[in-house]
Amino acid sequence: MLFRSGATQVLASNGDExxxxxxxxxxxxxxxxxxxxxxxxKDNGNAKVxxxxxxWTSDGWPRAGAVLSAP
Length: 71
Hints:
Layout: E1 17-28, E2 31-40, E3 46-56, E4 62-69
Antiparallel strand pairs: 1-2, 2-3, 3-4
């Protein structure tokens, strides 16, 4: 069966944050957090970890929200 609609990209390279991936979702009380690694273009491509709020669109798709941690 092929799915032809109904997808959203949650993470993508943005500025010096390159190749984000390895996502995990963690519940912190009432919040959902998105934890992932990326390669820092400002730091010779060194790997970093970032934590963001996981939010939801009105039609139920996940979205990476505000950054909660930064290197």
